[in-house]
Automatic annotation (TrEMBL):
CDD domains: SCO. Pfam families: SCO1-SenC. It comes from Methylobacterium komagatae. It comes from the Bacteria. Belongs to the SCO1/2 family. Signal peptide: none annotated. This is SCO family protein.
Amino acid sequence: MRRAIVPLLAFCLGLLGIVAAAFVMLKPQVTSVGTASVGGPFTLVNQDGKTVTEKDFSGATHLVFFGFTHCPDVCPTTLQQISDVLAALGPKGKNMKVAFVTVDPERDDPASLKAYLSSFDPRITGLTGTQDQITATVKAYRAYARKVPDKKGEYVMEHTAIVYVMDAQNRFLGALDISRPADQTAAELAKKI
């Protein structure tokens, strides 16, 4: 009987090893999809000529929008929509900040940003800098900006028109949908504050 148990035991152990190996080899591989890194460190100058970094926006949910003061329609419309959303937030949005980062530092100095932004909510801060600083900031946010000559011998800027929602630690939460009425957009944003 002992002679029969030893081969049977060996067979069972071998079978168990094969099953374990098959389980390991056939187990579905779990891979992490992760999220794209959006945002990052920047050093720019605001409309008052003061040096500003991303740390000046941390501590509360905030918005980031790329544009330029010579923009014929998208930028002023978006900035007005942002202003309307901020107003619709009421007291809930008192700590909200918005960074309006120019993609046209050649024309958008602090004084022109200050004059331009005077028509919008005062929580919107205009940011400019050197071309290299702006290019690095655009890249950090995975945005797009390109100078395009126009028929008058001037130029316009093609650029990303997303309103980025960033959390208190400067992490990307998503894009703000400003195509809806301001109160609906504010209600959505209020969930992230």
